Amino acid sequence: MMLKVSREPESIEEVLRFTNLLRIDLLIIEGFHRLVAKRADVGKIIAFKDLADLEERVKGTEPPIIAHCTFNRDLVRQEGYGLEFLVLPRDQDKLIKALEAFMKSP
To answer: pLDDT, tens digit, for every residue of 69-96?
Structure first.
């Protein structure tokens, strides 16, 4: 189910009310980095355009980070960069496995 909202929620608690109302086991929200970046109780998938964008998005983002994902097939993993990333849709199975592992973790 996809739900589009007309305004950005004030807090993540406002968003989480939907999980309680609709009895949802897993909620994936897009575009609310400001609301979740500092929260250790929320798993994050960081989507980025290029390595500079990834570096900027990672700054100040608290774990857990489930995956770093891009649609940019031209990106090459750089030595010493330290972050692995998934290229979608090619690595979609890896993303699903990462989500499953996160859901099983305590």
So the answer is: 999 988 877 655 567 889 999 999 999 9
Closest residue by Cα to residue 89 from 70, 76, 74: 70
Instruction: Give the list of residues 6+ apart from residue 85 with CB closer than 8 angstroms, or none.
Output: 48, 54, 67, 68, 69, 70, 75, 77
| Global pTM value | 0.81
Please tell me what DSSP assigns to residue 5.
-
Give the Cα separation of 28 and 53 in Å (integer): 21
In the chain, domain spans? 1-29, 37-104
pLDDT tens figures, 12-35 = 888 778 778 888 777 788 888 888
Chain Cα centroid distance, residue 68 = 7
The structure tokens listed for 6 are: 């007309």
